[in-house]
Write a structure and sequence with these properties.
The protein is of the alpha+beta class and 756 residues long. It has one domain: 8 Propeller (Methanol Dehydrogenase, Chain A). The protein contains eight helices and 40 strands. Strands 1-34-35-36-37 form a five-stranded mixed β-sheet, with no helix packed on it. A five-stranded mixed β-sheet has the order 3-4-5-6-30, with no helix packed on it. The N and C termini lie far apart (66 Å).
């Protein structure tokens, strides 16, 4: 019997008593528990995914299948020119909280869009949302968020920073990770975390290179900022799962982080963590073993951080197959019984469904053999878990599946590449040939791409078919001069990700010139801009630290200069009810860092390290459709319906040679109790689908791209849908902002009109 099989058998034993207590706790407390786990129905949207359950399920009061076609713009809040186009508005009672105006946090009246207060200059704030908490007597209302690797709180009523939170108004997130805090250069999560009772449970985004910080999940007291518990995703000596790693791995391995959406069953007090890949993603000779809790769905006691159960979706990941989408809580009917379940959709195109309390799979999962790695020192895991539910993406690129609309010259190039490359599910990366993974690092399903009708056992998935092309190469020792391989990688990165906006010779175009930018920016500023994005530029979170350093060197900088000089001061004048500015003042020493560059002294490790870029150059490699929405009936394990979504302008216009996928990355959904599924898609598309059969009931096109999650609320009996439409259209989309009558960038609020 293999080690992992044995672990799978015994993993629930230590927690059985805790699980039993949590399973029956709602009965003792007399808590009404609906199928999603919530104890009440809300007309607001106080959390990133609507509620801690992350179901994006909304109890509509007014909008139905019959009248959704009457949706019109009720009001909008214009906001130009800043890095907030991923931001998910939250709504509590009569107030909406948005990000805009030079990274300002703004409170708006939900009926009119009138500004209530503005807290300016929060540059570096988590870009995808924030958390709301209120005391039982409603006298203490606060917003919690991360800002430049700190955790801070703002009074939700006044908009002012809460100076009693943490120490001097903030918590340094680099502390408490069992590493030297000054060696941690990246830790702040892209997601806001999740509120449970008086706890903020939060993950991290430490980067994906060698020696990045560990991705331990932590819970902080929302009133004091005190660290209440830590769950080690890379176990320490004596902890469960420690023997699935080399003995010293916890000292140098990073990642295994929850950078995505944490789900909480609030009635039972169980937090479900979708854990990502350990570093380094594509070569794991220094982390031989199954690598718990990397790539696991982990159930924790939300109050204590105690592990209740786990299931590893990918053993010893070599493909960057993070669990990236929110675990969905549903009640399903199986064999005549109602079972509270948790389901997760993956980057590599599978759905796994478990008993929410015990962790037992509700549909069979088979351990199937896959190819062995040929890389020196590497030991790929001989089997991988495959769900027997229908998959939702293709898993191989062949001559037959290539996009037929590619120019013939391009197709001929690909025919030659495919003769020497390897493609297929779980083919290990190599330094001898290209590995064409389908899906690649972006999925499949990614963050924001799942939602649920919890009562009826239906899960909805947005998915894209996007390949990655990998080829490993040996990492050269750190030095200031770039090697030929580094130059090659940087040029490839620039060509695929930067050239369209910054110009072929870095002299600018749609975006500013990059000539000499390394001499003008400190390393910390440069890194934060590339990773987190700025203005219309998206964040490139998947760039590993090695390539990021090489890019900085290529642009004339010295990445060993880690002095943090603070974010540039905002020069644009902010008008309106400004009540505070900049968050709390952070001690200068809290931002100085020197990244860990090598293994700790005395630790056994491989002689060589290998890396690859993310190979994301070819979005439209396969034949269409590239992007779709699906409804999974998890009562019987079938795909109920599916529809292609999004707009590719070249393809729509008939130029089939320039097709690129209408990607669902950064898109989202809302499922209403009245049977409507709202969904966004590339090209500014906004749809309303019939939840039962996928029929399009209504659609419109926004004047700007939407990359954030939608929100809904009810005010005075009227339903409203909120869309953050502040993104720029890509070169492969229509530019709808140029159309007559186009709205400015901003938050667009829809409601039912009286017109038939």
């Amino acid at each position: 019997m293999r080690l992992y099989s044995l672990i799978s058998i015994i993993n629930n034993i230590p927690a059985r008593i805790s699980i039993l207590f949590i399973a029956v706790m709602p009965a003792f407390l007399n808590v009404g528990c609906n199928s999603g786990g919530s104890a009440h129905v809300q007309a607001s949207w106080p959390h990133y995914g609507g509620s801690p359950e992350q179901s994006r399920y909304f109890h509509a009061a007014e909008i139905t299948k019959d009248n959704v076609h009457r949706m019109k713009v009720a009001w909008m809040y214009p906001s130009e020119g800043n890095d907030f186009y991923f931001f998910n508005p939250i709504i509590v009672d009569s107030v909406m909280y948005v990000l805009g105006k030079n990274s300002s946090l703004i409170a708006l009246n939900v009926a009119t869009g009138k500004e209530i207060w503005i807290h300016t200059k929060l540059r570096g704030i988590t870009r995808r949302g924030l958390n709301y908490w209120e005391s039982k007597d409603k006298k203490d209302k606060r917003l919690l968020f991360t800002l430049n690797h700190t955790l801070q709180a703002i009074d939700a009523v006044t908009g002012k920073s809460i100076m009693s939170f943490g120490k001097d108004g903030y918590v340094d997130l680099r502390e408490g990770l069992d590493r030297d805090p000054t060696s941690i250069t990246r830790i702040q999560s892209m997601m806001p975390g999740v509120i449970y009772d008086t706890l903020l449970i939060i993950g991290s985004a430490p980067g994906e290179g060698y020696f990045s910080a560990p991705g331990h999940v932590r819970a902080y007291n929302v009133m004091t900022g005190k660290l209440e518990w830590t769950f080690h995703t890379i176990p320490h000596p004596g902890e469960y799962g420690y023997d699935t790693w080399p003995k010293d791995a916890y000292k140098y391995v990073g990642g295994a982080n929850v950078w995505s959406e944490i789900t909480v069953d609030t009635a039972r007090g169980i937090a479900y963590l979708p854990v990502g890949s350990p570093t380094y993603d594509y070569y794991g000779a220094d982390r031989l073993g199954a690598n718990l809790f990397g790539n696991c769905l982990v159930a924790l006691n939300a109050r204590t951080g105690e592990r209740l159960w786990h299931y590893q979706i990918v053993h010893h990941d070599l493909w960057d197959y993070d669990l990236a989408s929110a675990p969905q809580l549903l009640t399903v009917r199986r064999d005549g019984k109602s079972i509270d379940a948790v389901a997760v959709a993956t980057k590599h195109g599978f759905v796994f469904v478990f008993d929410r309390v015990t962790g037992e799979p509700l549909f069979p999962v088979e351990e199937r053999p896959f190819p062995k790695s040929e890389m020196p020192g590497e030991q790929s895991w001989p089997t991988q878990p495959i769900s027997t539910l229908p998959d939702f993406t293709r898993h191989e690129v062949t001559k037959e599946t290539l996009n037929p609309y590619l120019p013939d010259s391009v197709k001929q190039q690909w025919y030659k590449r495919l003769e020497t490359a390897k493609s297929g599910l779980f083919v290990p990366p190599s330094d001898k040939y290209e590995t064409i993974m389908m899906p690649g690092a972006l999925g499949g399903a990614n963050y924001g791409n799942t939602a649920a009708d919890p009562k009826n056992g239906i899960m909805y998935i947005l998915t894209q078919e996007y390949a990655s092309i990998y080829k490993l190469e040996k990492v050269a020792p750190p030095k200031i001069d770039l090697s030929e391989n580094q130059i090659k990688r940087v040029k490839s990165l620039y060509s695929s990700s930067c050239q369209t906006c910054h110009g072929e010779n870095m002299q600018g175009g749609a975006a500013p010139s990059l000539v000499g930018v390394g001499e003008r920016l400190f390393w910390s500023d440069f890194r934060n801009t590339v990773v987190n994005g700025k203005g219309p530029m998206p964040g490139f979170v998947h760039i590993d630290e090695e390539t990021l350093r090489a890019l900085y060197l290529y642009l004339g900088g010295n990445p060993r200069s880690f002095a943090f000089r603070g974010w540039p001061q905002v020069t644009t004048k902010i008008t309106g009810p400004v009540v505070d500015s900049g968050g709390v003042e952070i001690r200068p020493d809290a931002q100085r860092a020197q990244a860990m560059m090598d293994y700790p002294p005395g630790v056994e490790h491989p002689a060589d390290r290998y890396t690859t870029d993310y190979g994301l150059d070819w979005m439209g490699l396969l034949s269409p459709p590239w992007s779709k929405i699906l409804a999974y009936d998890l009562n019987n394990g079938t795909i109920k319906w599916q529809q292609p979504v999004g707009e590719d302008s070249a393809f729509v216009q008939g130029d089939k040679t320039k097709g690129a996928p209408s990607g669902t990355l950064r898109k989202g959904m809302i499922v209403t109790s009245t049977g409507v599924v709202f969904a966004t898609a590339k090209g500014g598309k906004l749809y309303a689908f019939d939840a039962d059969n996928g029929k399009i009931l209504w659609e419109t096109t926004l004047s700007h791209e939407s990359n954030a999650q939608p929100s809904m609320y009810t005010f005075k009996g009227k339903d409203y849908l909120v869309i953050n439409a502040t993104g720029n259209f890509g070169p492969d989309s229509y530019n709808h902002s140029k159309k007559e009558g186009a709205l400015p960038k901003g938050y667009v609020v829809y409601s039912l009109s009286n017109d038939e």
